[in-house]
Amino acid sequence: MKTRPIAALAPLAALPLGLILAACGTTDADADDKPAPKAADSAECAADKTTTSSGPVKLTDSYGRTVELDEPAQRVAVLEWQQVEDVLSLCVTPVAVADVEGYTTWDTAETLPEGVTDVGTRGEPNLETLFGTDPDLVIVEAYTPDDEILKQLAKYDVPVLATKGADAKDPIATMIDTFELIARATGREERAKVVVDDFNAHLAAAKEKVAAVDAGRFVYFDGWIQGGNVSIRPFGQGSLMGELGEELGLENAWTGEVDPAYGLGQTDIEGMSEVGDATFFSTGTVDPEGDVNAALAENAVWQKIPAVAEGRAHAFPAGVWTFGGPRSAQQVIDAYVDLLTASSK
């Protein structure tokens, strides 16, 4: 299975082995010939009036490591999609990212401009290509202070900002903390405040929209197909999807065991039948390796689960990233509201 965010894998495959880094390949063109990256070219960023701070930067990353820069980072390389989205929300265009095609498929909250160097998969980025883009900061998602990716990148004379992608103790606060950490590294604190304030206002408005709806119990899930069988990954307590749903007044019906970072569980069709009184929500992004929702639609047992039989199983729009930053979270909120209010009519 490829290292990407479906199936039993959280972003960058939250497995004991961490990331396996590949340093093979050819070097990109000389960095001296590369122009400085332009600001992200969305209409919102084109109208952005916030300023970028100047002067030396000294901060502590998500794992207590000190990161020092002579000035806010301008040429950033990013190896995880949440952080790619965050950088773009700050109106900064990265010089390099991992898995451009995957990002554009799974995360539509922010559009990646053309011309950004693709350094390969998130699990096996090409380090020679990465450092050939002459970054002044590499932003990664790590799982422990001694993550393998940090060991590999420490061999290069470029600062590395280690961020925490998730923490089931408070997934929304962790998402915002990561976003604001990247903002400090890039001098985009003013812009970050605009985005965070917008997220909070968006959530407050959404709560009012669904206040009159009998929200009830729910389970959000994604899944994967392996050997012809469908495995299901419920987003339980401590998941970002679960927390956002509960902020809107829903009750997360999945109470099974989940991992301590992403709040993700694992079950099968029979397991989902145990929470069939809950409304089902699922990812609408079709995995190139297998359409889970299509496979479920052909399963007789699945069709008999009350949530499915009664028309209470809803797919989100494609491209809504379940492990994203504030802009993805707004898409999640909109999807919940649209589906809840439509089903209540």
TrEMBL record:
Q: Where is the protein found, in the record's own terms?
A: Cell envelope
Cleaved signal peptide residues: 1-22
- Region annotation (Disordered) ranges: 30-57
Q: What is its main location?
A: other
Q: Where is the Fe/B12 periplasmic-binding domain?
A: 75-344
Q: Which family does it belong to?
A: Belongs to the bacterial solute-binding protein 8 family.
Which Pfam families has this protein been placed in?
Peripla_BP_2
Key words of the record: Signal, Transport
Name of the protein described by the UniProt record? Siderophore ABC transporter substrate-binding protein CdtB
Query: Lineage of the source organism?
Result: Bacteria, Bacillati, Actinomycetota, Actinomycetes, Propionibacteriales
Name the InterPro entries on file: ABC_transptr_periplasmic_BD (IPR002491), Bact_iron-sidero_bind (IPR051313)
